[in-house]
Structure prediction request, 132 residues.
Amino acid sequence: MLPLAIKSNNAGDRLVIEPDRPDYWTATLQCSELHARRRFYELRIDSLPLFLDGLASNWRGWEGERNWKSLESDVEITATHNGRGNIALVVTLRNDVVDSDVTSGWTVRALLTLDAGTALDQLAREATLHLR
Prediction:
């Protein structure tokens, strides 16, 4: 399997998801000064290409938010459509550790913007090829 790069309209901003080892993946989020990486567990990564294909199929817009989460919610993508041909993807990476009633760890969140239409179709096709 090949890495999948979700590139924002903002130059250099991207989320890259790549295989690590069986059933484990690495998500790397890079936006301006932010660079975060999270290894996550996912048995059915093919749900991500299905999510992206659903966005591409509805490129003219939808109401509310659409979400994809990894199995343990380490990686989350929330998509909204502005009704004017742009899609906002809010990408969240988290590393929460709960031990003896103490929660520690980190959470990062960044916005990636995409054009609806051809670019989104291409992303959905690449996701299907790279992650299935």
